Amino acid sequence: MVAASTEEPILLQTEDGSPTLYSPRFDEHYHSTRGALSESRHVFVENGLATLYHDEKPPSALRVLEYGFGLGVNLLVAIEWALPRALHLDYTTLERYPISPDLLAAAHFRVEEEVARLWRSAHEAPWGVRQNVGAVLTLEKVQCDFTEYTPKAPAFNIVFFDAFSPTRVPEQWRTELFSSIKQVLAPHALLVTYSASGVVKRALRAAGFVVKRRPGALGKHHLLQAFVE
Ligand SMILES: C[S@@+](CC[C@H](N)C(=O)[O-])C[C@H]1O[C@@H](n2cnc3c(N)ncnc32)[C@H](O)[C@@H]1O
Questions:
Q1: CB under 6 Å to ligand 1: residues?
Q2: Ligand 1: which of 97, 158, 181 to mutate, judged by most atoms within 8 Å of the beta carbon?
Q3: Which domains does the chain have, with CATH numbers?
Q4: CA of 74 to the centre of ligand 1 (A)
Q5: For the sheet containing 61-67, what is the strand order?
Q6: Residue 169 CA to ligand 1 centre (angstroms)
Q7: First-last CA distance in the chain
């Protein structure tokens, strides 16, 4: 375990061998303790990126908007998936509490060397600057309160909505926020989230999304996909 202050997250190992963080501030884990990598792959790749990707007519690039950068596990699995497909990711991620270099240094994932290298470079990249990280990734990390932030660049293809749970932070799962997100999405864009709570479903529908339930990760019943028509 690594912890630098009472507010700082604590690094711990999940059951699939990958690390996650526990947040004392929110009293919540960043991922399922049954497997951080497994959960991110299931929710944000298999039910996210893969849903938008068709082998017959593969896109050359996708614009991703993420709510909650955290440990960057979603970015890592996105890179892992995009690399062999030569798919370019234009990735904007929002985070209020960036984690410390000490915590990052202690976090290790059993993935291809190139994927781990790009993930570290992404963490080391400065905040508030849009930049290329290797050939497959254009990255902008924005430090902000995402409930008050209006994304500038329009036409995102996919949103990774990865806030802490709606029971812990209900104000982060409101219709108003989902409506403002919808304004910056491309036609047929997808918002994907691990939560399938009724409150979230209703808020997404009220914001004008078409919501589908899919099997959740690691024993969770469901997750949600929300589409722009
Ligand atoms: C479930 S974790 C995200 C995990 C992350 N996507 C990953 O792959 O490691 C939720 C994240 O939301 C961030 N967060 C909490 N409240 C926030 C706010 N108001 N604005 C921006 N980020 C916030 C937390 O610091 C945390 O990193």
A1: 30, 40, 68-74, 94-97, 145-147, 162-164
A2: 97
A3: 38-227 (3.40.50.150)
A4: 11
A5: 131-133, 137-143, 88-95, 61-67, 156-161, 185-193, 222-227, 210-215
A6: 11
A7: 45
- Kindly report the protein residue whose alpha carbon is nearest to atom 8 of ligand 1: 73
Among the residues of the chain, which ranges form H helices?
A: 36-40, 50-52, 73-82, 101-106, 113-124, 175-182, 198-206
pLDDT in tens, 115-174: 999 999 999 999 999 999 999 999 999 999 999 998 876 799 999 999 999 999 999 999
Tokens of residue 119, six digits: 């993930």
Residues 6+ apart with CB under 8 A from 188: 227, 228, 229
Q: Give the Å distance between the CA of 56 and the centre of ligand 1.
A: 35
pTM beyond 0.90: the answer is: yes
CA distances (Å), origin 190, targets 45, 49, 145, 202, 224: 12, 9, 22, 16, 10
